[in-house]
Design a protein that fits this description.
The protein has one domain: Trna Endonuclease, Chain: A, domain 1, CATH 3.40.1350.10. 34% of the residues lie in helices and 35% in strands. The chain is built from two helices and five strands; from the N terminus they run H-E-E-E-H-E-E. It has a five-stranded mixed sheet with strand order 1-2-3-4-5. A hairpin with a 2-residue loop joins strand 2 and strand 3. The longest helix is centred in the N-terminal third of the chain and has 23 residues. About 4% of the residues have low confidence.
C-alpha cells in the first residue's frame, strides 16, 4: 500500500471514529460499522435511535473542499441498495433513514433522509 493510500485510510478511520462518538453522544446506538454488501457497496455506520434504523454515509474533507459534494446520487443509490439488502438479510421490518454525516474543519453535521 502506498504512503498516500495509507494516510487516506487512516484519515477515513479517524473520521468514522469521530462520527461514531458524535452519534453516541447524540443518543444513537451503534448497531454495525462498515457493513459490506457484495456488488452493492458499503454502509459506514448503521445506528438506531427511537426505533428508527439509520444507514449513515460518513464524508469528511480536508481544509479547502466541502465533503458534502462527495454525497452524489450514485453514492446515495449504493447506500439505499445496501440498506435494502441489510434489511432483507437480517429479516428486519423496521422504519429506516438514509443519512449523511459530514465532518468539516472541526464541525459535525448529520443530515437525515438524504434519499433521492
Amino acid at each position: 500500500m502506498s504512503r498516500e493510500r495509507a494516510l487516506l485510510k487512516t484519515f477515513g478511520n479517524e473520521s468514522e471514529e469521530l462520527a461514531t462518538r458524535y452519534l453516541e453522544d447524540s443518543g444513537f446506538v451503534i448497531v454495525e460499522r462498515n457493513f459490506y454488501a457484495r456488488k452493492l457497496g458499503e454502509i459506514d455506520i448503521i445506528a438506531q435511535k427511537r426505533g428508527v434504523l439509520h444507514f449513515i454515509e460518513v464524508k469528511s474533507g480536508r481544509a479547502d473542499f466541502d465533503p458534502i459534494y462527495n454525497v452524489t446520487p450514485a453514492k446515495i443509490r449504493k447506500v439505499i441498495n445496501s440498506a435494502y439488502y441489510y434489511l432483507k438479510v437480517k429479516k428486519l421490518d423496521t422504519p429506516f433513514s438514509i443519512d449523511a454525516l459530514i465532518i468539516r474543519k472541526g464541525s459535525v453535521e448529520l443530515i437525515e433522509n438524504i434519499t433521492l
